[in-house]
Amino acid sequence: ALGAEGAPRSGGGAAGWGLRSGAGAAPENEYDLLVIGGGSGGLACAKEAAQFGRKVAVMDYVEPSPQGTSWGLGGTCVNVGCIPKKLMHQAALLGSALKDAQHYGWNISQPVHHTWSVMAQGVQNYVKSLNWGHRVQLQEKKVKYFNIKGSFSDPHTVCGLTKAGKETVVTADNIVIATGGRPKYPMDVAGALEYGITSDDLFWLKESPGKTLVVGASYVSLECAGFLTGIGLDTTVMMRSVPLRGFDQQMASLVTEHMESYGTKFLKRCFPTKVEKLKSNRLQVTWKNADLDTEETDSFDTVMWAVGRAPDTKTLNLETVGVKTNSETGKIIVDASEATSVPHIYAVGDITEGRPELTPTAIAAGKLLAQRLFGQSSELMDYDNVPTTVFAPLEYGCVGLSEEAAVQRYGSDNIEVYHAFYKPLEFTVAERDATQCYMKMVCLREREQRILGLHFIGPNAGEVIQGFALGIKCGATYPQMMKTVGIHPTCAEEVTKLHITKRSGLDATVTGC
Amino acid sequence: MAQRLALHRLLSLPARGSLVSQGRAFGTSAGRRSTFNVQDGSDFQDRVVNSPKPVVVDFHAQWCGPCKILGPRLEKLVSKLEGKVLMAKVDIDDHTDLAIEYEVSAVPTVLAMKNGDVVDKFVGIKDEDQLEAFLKKLIGA
């Protein structure tokens, strides 16, 4: 029997009419779990819950970007984040490798040219195969998929419209919000929304972005500007303040220093005031230079905003059900078990306040949540010592505390920083500049000298740091690291040989053999 | 009926050379008529499910290498049958729901459909002999 309000029956294959009661009695919900958001966290949670034989549904919907870009199932990482980013970063690295190749004896006519559309098609095709893969996985695990934009009508009911305009209502005992975030547009710059693009659009461009201005100091900005430079485009980064806020600042400076020597132009301590379209279809950008107190201008083919990401909560109708968000960031407030302020409503991934905006943490949190809800587990997600990497042209990988954070927590007298400037063997014959190839290990000074943080700039930084993250998780100490024999010849072995302290003031340049 | 028997004999001719040359004479125009790209769900209903003739449905994707080989190979053989079998091409990125509905998980997947039912199926690339046998079975049965 239909409830008092009469849940509307949806059409087509979306069998989503749940029974809603009037006042009083607990509603009989159609699903054990509804996940809103089909990205890294959402899909991991849904698939894990389905393993326990539960009735699970996923709602995923991509609101097209202001420029009209849209994509399939899989979330930010798959479609407009990690995956296309790393592939385009690889395209740029291959360009450098082609230059190096000559020194190693290869006959390659210089200069080498890059065709955007060939790279873009390859990347976009791969992403589409991942969208498909996710659909098939949901189907195989018997997770119901709705391509609708859901919003709460009550704590156990979410409704939305299909693309065809049919209303769908889904009820569930437990609901997980995993809608992630979207790039922000600067609100105080005329023409920003009309003429600028974001990372949502960059990876789906069919034609080359040409001469590009990337505004922002985030890793999104630096990574994108990095590969655009690498494939031969005239690229400029505009930063208002410091690069990579939140990361170790010494390492952040080395990253940007390398990018400058690599060919990326930097407009430091500048912020844009307006963007106008010229008759030639180019974009005229005007900005203020805070240091010189001047106003400057230049024209670009593309302007990309990388000024931060905002949680995707606007259309969820969170106020109706009372899910509390952080007033400043807009992100959903959760406790250590990923629970929101409303019973049976949880949140994972980029949408949650105080969590790293990373795919692996979202996936792990999503899986553990499903295990706690349906698998009698009590294990909580451990957000400590999460390793990460900035895939700038010279990669920066790190795990644990930055030097500043360690100093703040323990005091500079209680920490020891071991560091080294090194030269990757592969750079020698290729006559490549290794000025910014550097690493440092921040340790407690007393007793067992536990390692608090490890920072590495160099080729394959992500691959290097991944293994050491295990050691740090296990509470590795400086003496243990010194007992670890290095693999030769590698860059990673230099970590096991770190012995020069910042405190000593000695020259930190180390040589190979 | 006589037409179908004649075709039967045509198909069982050992000399493939003659088959090809026979096919090519009619090939182009028949090919154009007998292969089409599915536009949407209702198009699939009309032209595949409700088709009076048997239909091979080729589920493919832009990012699928083997699909680019199988597609033309199958199309060529279908066109030689001069309209006895039709071929519907479905791009699974454009028509994901339809592909999922027909339990496609990998591409290329080819379904043989007759009177709205799936009577045969294969996944992955096949050579011309295998495809001919597949088509022969569809028309013959």
UniProtKB/TrEMBL annotation, chain A:
UniProt keyword annotation of Nucleotide-binding present: yes
Binding site for FAD: K86, G150, D350
Active site per UniProt: H488
Ranges of residues in domain FAD/NAD(P)-binding: 31-366
Keywords: Disulfide bond, FAD, Flavoprotein, NAD, NADP, Nucleotide-binding, Oxidoreductase, Redox-active center, Selenocysteine
Annotated residues for binding of NAD(+): G216, A217, S218, Y219, V220, S221, L222, E223, G308
Biological process (GO), any one: cell redox homeostasis
Stored Pfam families: Pyr_redox_2 (PF07992), Pyr_redox_dim (PF02852)
Disulfide links within the chain: C77-C82
Signal peptide: none
Domain Pyridine nucleotide-disulphide oxidoreductase dimerisation: 386-497
EC numbers, comma separated: 1.8.1.9
GO MF assignments: flavin adenine dinucleotide binding; glutathione-disulfide reductase (NADPH) activity; thioredoxin-disulfide reductase (NADPH) activity
Gene Ontology CC annotation, any one: mitochondrion
Cofactor remark: Binds 1 FAD per subunit.
Cofactor(s) the protein requires to work: FAD
NCBIfam families documented for this protein: TGR (TIGR01438)
Family statement drawn from the similarity comment of this UniProt entry: Belongs to the class-I pyridine nucleotide-disulfide oxidoreductase family.
Protein name: thioredoxin-disulfide reductase (NADPH)
Organism name: Cyanoderma ruficeps
From TrEMBL, chain B:
Residue ranges annotated for the Thioredoxin domain, each copy included: 24-140
Molecular function GO terms recorded: protein-disulfide reductase activity
Alphabetical keyword list: Disulfide bond, Electron transport, Redox-active center, Transport
GO cellular component: mitochondrion
CDD domains reported for this sequence: TRX_family (cd02947)
GO biological process: cell redox homeostasis
InterPro entries: Thioredoxin, Thioredoxin-like_sf, Thioredoxin_CS, Thioredoxin_domain
Alphabetized PANTHER family for the sequence: THIOREDOXIN, MITOCHONDRIAL
Family under the similarity heading: Belongs to the thioredoxin family.
Protein name listed in UniProt: Thioredoxin, mitochondrial
